[in-house]
Amino acid sequence: PFSGTFKKNSALVTSSLLFKGMGKSAGMHVVDIMEPNGNPASSFKGKVDTALAELDSHDIVYLHIEEIENISLKGDLDDKVLALEDFDQEIAGPLLNALDGRDDIKMLFVENHVSSASLMKYTKDRVPFVVYPGTQTGTAEGFDEKILDAGKVHFKNGPELMEAFLKDQL
């Protein structure tokens, strides 16, 4: 269980049945974000608001967004660019604004794997991540795949990244 491994209580906000099952298996509080019609909630605002509310009662809140992955696998590059812009404006921006000035909060933005829109499949490429606020200093002029080659911090897998994040090594 997550709480036994990391000594922190946790919540998971997702509309993915797969992630809900993994969260339940890890002993996380899985938030039901279904819309009244029974369809998964697609509103980014609703997911962000739910994640922020869960911070009141949980040490860790895992917000999983799958919409960009689904768009990538369809191969429409224009739609992927629009989805990334939406992520920035409707998820990352509101989270950063809502948590600005709170020194008790740290965020990790990461993909679970690379979903290539040009190849229309998953790849085993390195996955970019951003920690805010992080312990590493430096600046970046952009955030793209090229930054992965320039960066000095690499992890073999997700659990190593999560452990470093939760032990304040990032």
Number of helices: 7
Model regions low in confidence, pLDDT < 50 over at least 5 residues: 37-41
Total beta-strand segments: 7
Strand order in space, largest sheet: 2-1-3
- For the residues shown, what is the average pLDDT? 83
Quaternary arrangement of the chains shown? single chain
Order of helices and strands: HEHEHEHHEEEEHH
How many angstroms does the end-to-end distance come to?
23 Å
- Based on helices, strands and strand pairing, what is the structural class? alpha/beta
Query: How can the largest sheet be summarized?
Result: 3 strands, parallel
Overall shape: it is: globular
Helix share of residues?
40-55%
What Rg is obtained from the alpha carbons, in whole angstroms? 16 Å
Q: What percent strand?
A: 5-15%
Explain this structure:
The chain is an alpha/beta fold. It is 41% helix and 15% strand. The strands form three sheets. It has a three-stranded parallel beta sheet with strand order 2-1-3, sandwiched between helices. A two-stranded antiparallel ribbon has the order 4-7. Strands 5-6 form a two-stranded antiparallel ribbon. Helix 3 (44-54) runs parallel beside helix 5 (77-99) and helix 4 (67-74) runs antiparallel to helix 5. It is globular, with a radius of gyration of 16 Å. The chain starts with a helix and ends with a helix.
Question: What does the secondary structure layout of this molecule look like, with pairings?
Answer:
Elements lengths: L1 H5 L3 E4 L3 H9 L3 E3 L12 H11 L5 E4 L3 H8 L2 H23 L7 E4 L3 E3 L4 E3 L5 E4 L13 H5 L7 H9 L4
Parallel strand pairs: 1-2, 1-3
Antiparallel strand pairs: 4-7, 5-6
Helix pairs in contact: 3-5, 4-5
